[in-house]
Prior knowledge:
Blueprint: H1 3-9, H2 12-24, H3 27-31, H4 38-48, H5 52-77
Helix pairs in contact: 2-4, 4-5
Amino acid sequence: MNSADLDAAIDESKLKRTEAIIYSKTPEERSNPKLLNPRRKFRIAKGAGLDIAEVNRFIKQFEQSQKMMKQMSGMGKRGRGLFPGMGGGFPGGRKGGFPFR
Length: 101
């Protein structure tokens, strides 16, 4: 993907909303998202000039991306390959080296 394609794919308005949400949080809320209760979410939405639903959507998306990153980082530790269920080895059951000698 070249830079022109990347520029076309980025939605500037979504980026501005995300930036407004992040800057409306306190440093403690940025480092620990579990602090976000309904009152804090309301304050963030008001500070960002957005609806609470958009703040909730952003938080949910953030939590999902964190979960996915944890799953991706754990794949190498367990010896599993890129695709779960396929094992970590080569075709034919070999674990190391070139599989077709």
